[in-house]
Amino acid sequence: MTIAATLDSADGQRLIEQVAQTFGVDDDKAGQAVHTLTDELQARVQRRMLNRAGVADVAALVTNPAAGTALSEPQTLASPEAVDSGNHILDVLIGSKHVSRKIAARTASSSNLDTGTVEKLLPAVASLLVAELQRQSQPALQKAVSGIPGLSGFGGSPLGLPGDAPPQSGSASDWSSGNGQSPSGRPSGAPIDAGQPLPIPGDNIPGLGRRSGRSYPQPDDNDDPYQRLPDIIRRGGQQVPGGGGSLEDIIRSIFGKVLGSNRGVIGTMIQLFLIRWLASLARRFLSRIFTGR
């Protein structure tokens, strides 16, 4: 099921009603705003994933264990903590407050809400989008990384949920040679050391990757390897066992299916730029016909 289909379901309608209640707006207007903002943000996710660094950025958002709070506790979407979390998502996906305000203004016009209210809804919808992307992609994501040493396990969840126990460094694995050591001398079952993030020039320029602003200590036996998954993707070259292809392409495909757009990089570029550009031209043309301007 895609995110768009989820919004149209009974559960999606109940969620929209909760959003309307939380922000004190009419249910119908809230529904229109949520659908429009979701479409806008889905396009931004697809655009971010056109390159490897963008796939890593989206993976960092989706594999954050706290991301699911937006779905499990939607009544808290207006809290300061939820707003900060949503604004961080917008920073990753959009990177410009000016563009965010333009999206809010367009949505306000189409949903008959004031711009200030839609600006409050925007980080909430961003959090809901990432939470739903996490929920739907989790099984496929776990399957994709299950065969990669150091990225499997954790109670069957790729998200490192509270209560999951990390694998023991002395456990058996395909690396084991009978002495608990890998060919490189690393204890079998120990997480992959992806090292420090690459020092990418223009760190906050969309399309070139970004830093999270936090430090990256050297991993130990109790470290959650999924915290380093985005950096592993960003470095590239990791292949999924069994002929599955590159980790970057597999994860892009997983997210693309949930977003309802799994056309690959070239197909996504055509959809995002050519089709949306033609649609914009059509809207301007029709506007001139009806307004006489």
UniProtKB/TrEMBL annotation:
It comes from the Bacteria. Residues 155-229 are annotated as: Disordered. Residues 168-185 have a biased composition (Polar residues). This is DUF937 domain-containing protein. It comes from Hyphomicrobium denitrificans (strain ATCC 51888 / DSM 1869 / NCIMB 11706 / TK 0415).
